[in-house]
Amino acid sequence: MNRVWVLKSAIGLLLLLYPVFIYFGLKEYSPGLLATVIFAMAAIRWAVSRNDGPLKAYGPYLVMAPALVVGATFITDSNLGLFLYPALVNLVFFVFFSISLFYPPTVVEQLARWRQPDFPSEAISYTTKVTKVWCLFFVINGALSLLSLQLSEEWWLLYNGLIAYLFMGGLFAVEYLVRLRVMSRLYG
Fold first, then answer.
1. pTM (2 decimals)?
2. Most buried in the list 46, 75, 106, 188, measured by CB within 10 Å?
């Protein structure tokens, strides 16, 4: 098995479990240590996968959210930056997806062309609509992440560690079903 793949997968899983890691980690460790670990994991994951996939040019920018977390944690000397991370990730993705609407191809089109190089030009309007839906999702999801933090750390954990993933999975599922209809119409 490829060591790089194992490393990327392990770090990806840890970043996916970020809310659980932070919620329970803060009971034992300092915010600064946890912020540094998160930044290191994100930087290592970017370093080992910077030449992968259609969005490789965005890689350095995806380390921005962890860098902001580290900065906010050390500047405020509190755990606030750690709790803001999910909202910051949504903000970063919103920025990338929305910029791609004004400077095509959109992020969704780039992903589609990576998987299907003979991408039909008729599908571009569909990928633009999907990009807009994801922009709306990132705004709503980021706002709900912030709202959950206002309620309590437990609500923050529940929303960011479970509910947000269920919403995202639901959006992926609905988009996939719609895509099947659109592609069958395009390809007859």
1. 0.89
2. 106
Token pair for 179: 């895509």
> CA 174, 53, 124: angle at the middle one, nearest 5?
50
Among 71, 128, 139, 123, CA closest to 100: 128
Q: Which two tokens stand for residue 156?
A: 């923050």
- Predicted local confidence at residue 50, as pLDDT: 65
CA distance 76 to 35: 12
Helix (H) / strand (E) element for 167: namely: helix 164-187
- Listed residue (86, 82, 90, 80) closest to 161, CA to CA: 86
Supply the pLDDT for residue 141: 98
pLDDT at 16: 87
Query: How many angstroms separate the CA atoms of 81 and 92, rounded?
Result: 15
Work out how many domains the chain is built from and give that number.
Answer: 1
* Single-letter amino acid code for the residue at 56: K
Give burial (CB, 10 Å; 0-12/13-18/19+) of 179.
middle
Q: Give the model confidence (pLDDT) of 57-115 as tens digits.
A: 666 667 777 888 888 888 888 999 999 999 998 998 999 899 999 999 999 998 888 88
Domain assignment of residue 67, given as a range: 3-187
